[in-house]
Structure formats: C-alpha cells, structure tokens
Amino acid sequence: MRVLMMGGTQFVGRTFTEEFLKAGWEVTHFNRGKTNPDLFPGVNTIVGDRNEDLSAIASQEWDVVVDVNAYLPHQTKRLNEALKDSVRRFVFVSTISVYADGEQSRLPESAALQELKEDTGVVDNETYGAYKVICENLVNERWGDKATILRPGVIIGPWDHTERFPYWPIRFADGGKILLPQASGMTITALDVRDFAEFTRLVIDRNVPGVFNCDRATAVWDDLLAGLRAFATQKSIDFEEVTAPLDWLGEHDLIPWRNFPSLLPVGASTGDCTAAIAVGLKERTMLETIRDTYDWTQSVGLKRPLKSGIGVEQEEEAIKEWLAR
Question: What is the rounded CA–CA span in Å between residue 9 and residue 37?
C-alpha cells in the first residue's frame, strides 16, 4: 500500500504514520519539513508547502492519500487538482464541528451541517466547521465513492501538542486539592489517537467509502473522572477533589473546554458513532489513555502551567474562595 500523508509528524498524522508503518505500508510525507523532520528516518519526505507548489506529488501515483491538515477550501481544491485519477482512496480528516445543531449529543452523519456566513479566509471558532464542510464537499465531488470522510471529536493521547487532555493526568499527578466542575452525566468527547489511527487503517485496508463520526461511543464526565481517580490511586497520589457548580465557576471565568478540557463548550455537538463501530472502531479504556498520556508528558518534561486547563494560582484562589463561601 503506497500512502501519501499530508503532514504526518505532529500528533494525529504522527500516530497515523506509526500505524501504517506497523501494517507494512510504504508511507510518504508531504510537509514543510519544520515539525519533527527527523522523526521517521525510514519514511520518504517530500518537502513543500501545500499552499504553494504541489508538482512534486502530482508527478507520482498513490494508493491512498490521507489529508489531516486541510482547513481552507483552496487547500482541498489544489490537492484535488494535483492528484492523479489512479488514487484508490482519498481519506479526509474533517471534524465533529461541521454540525449545525449546537448543544446536541450523538448527532448522526446525516444531521444538518454548518453554512459559511462570511468568507474571511481566516480559520477561527466561527469559520472552522463551515470551512471543513466546504472541504468535505470538494472531496466528495472530486472522488465520489473513492472518498472517506472522518469526523473526529476531540482526539486525545500521547503527543497531544494542544495540551488539552494532558492537563488532567498532570493535574492529578500533582495531587493536593483539585478543582473540578459538578458535571455528572455531561457528555465528553475524547477518542484515543491510536484508536483513531487503527480505524483509519481499517477503512483504508477494506476500501470503505462514506462519512464516519469518530469518538467514544457513550462517554460522560463521570468516565473521565473515574479514570483519573484510578490513575491517581495506582500512583499512590494524595489528592482531594473540590467540586463546584458550573454556574459558580463561570462567574469566576472558569469554563468548560478552556479550563476543563474534554467538557464541551456551549454550542458544541457530539457525533453518533454507530456507523464507525459497525465497521470496526474500537476504544481502549480511559485509564490506559490517561496512563500513557502521562508517561509521554513525563518523557518530554511537560508540566503546569499548560496551554489549557487552570493555572496554579488561579486554581488555588478559586478553591479558597469556594471553600470560604
């Protein structure tokens, strides 16, 4: 299997590459050669910018192309034009953010999608999902039954450069009083990147077309918390949970997603993964993901404060105020 990976060296692309190599496939990366350029010495890398010249990949043939880093329609158009008809499958990594029905859990792939309100050319919270919808449409129009669209929720696990999910095992490993939201029963989105990679390899191997939501099937906040508690117990960490209502936390500028990763922000949706599970999507335990993510954070020296979560002083002040109320 000859695979062209757009990107391939950061988080999702990195794990996809590892999975494909494990399957014995021949992988070629097309990227700018800036992020972890020496990560895969056995992988051929074509250095280039997808926003500029694609002639180097246009002159070759591929069994499958996996695009993990297209965010704007012109990027998808250019790639479509550059690739030859001999490509057997085009796998496009989209997002769960394509759905128009905010605050709805477990939406099917057929649910209404976002529409672009203003073509600003800038990817932000307002345009991200809508631009991905346009990219999906361009892929489907060009490749038809050769197209596979994957709509992941939040992807978690080792090498997560966003530092969202890593906040949790790092925070519990630090022990002490831990500020948590009262969010029992609330839906979370958190699929291990390795499970996502295995599913992607499976749909390629079986040449499966269509659109698939990719996430944990039924996970709620309680599942994440149970995994973190088990992790802390295994590590013999002394910790104390301090739980406060979401309304109170919001009044103190502590909100889901930004400060409590995996809890979705207002207006976000999750997808029904029934179709992907029927094809073969599996999920490892939350505890395994937490443990492996923590081991990775230690290997790279990651510690608080992080890009996501709550700052040390901010958490201490909030806990003090909540307990003194």
Answer: 7
φ, ψ at 2 (rounded to 5°): -100, 115
CA distances from 311 to 58, 247, 294, 304, 318 (A): 47, 19, 18, 7, 10
DSSP bridge partners of 187: 220
Higher pLDDT, 105 or 305: 305
What gap in Å lies between CA 228 and CA 212, rounded to an integer? 29
Q: Is the pTM of this model over 0.85?
A: yes
Amino acid identity of residue 45, one-letter, is T
Neighbours of 2 (CB within 10 A): 15
C-alpha to C-alpha distance for 220 and 185, rounded to whole angstroms: 6
CATH number assigned to the domain covering 2-156+191-214: 3.40.50.720
pLDDT digits (tens, 9 = 90+) for 92-141: 999 999 999 766 788 999 999 999 999 999 999 899 999 999 999 999 99
Residue boundaries of the structural domains of the chain: 2-156+191-214, 167-189+217-267+285-319
pLDDT at 284 over 90: yes
Radius of gyration of the chain (CA): 20
CA angle 177, 183, 185 (to 5 degrees): 135
Contact 162, 190 (CB under 8 A): no
Residue carrying the six token digits 């505890």: 287
Q: What is the pLDDT of residue 103?
A: 65
Lowest mean pLDDT among 13-17, 49-53, 130-134: 49-53
Q: Are 100 and 114 in contact (CB under 8 A)?
A: yes
Tell me the one-letter amino acid at 313.
E
Structure tokens at 77: 């158009």
Least confident of 9-18, 53-62, 198-207, 291-300: 53-62
- Sorted by sequence, the CB contacts under 8 Å of residue 285 that are 6+ apart come out as 227
- How many angstroms from the chain centroid is the CA of residue 269? 14
Q: What is the three-class DSSP state of 242?
A: strand
Position 86 pLDDT exceeds 90 = no
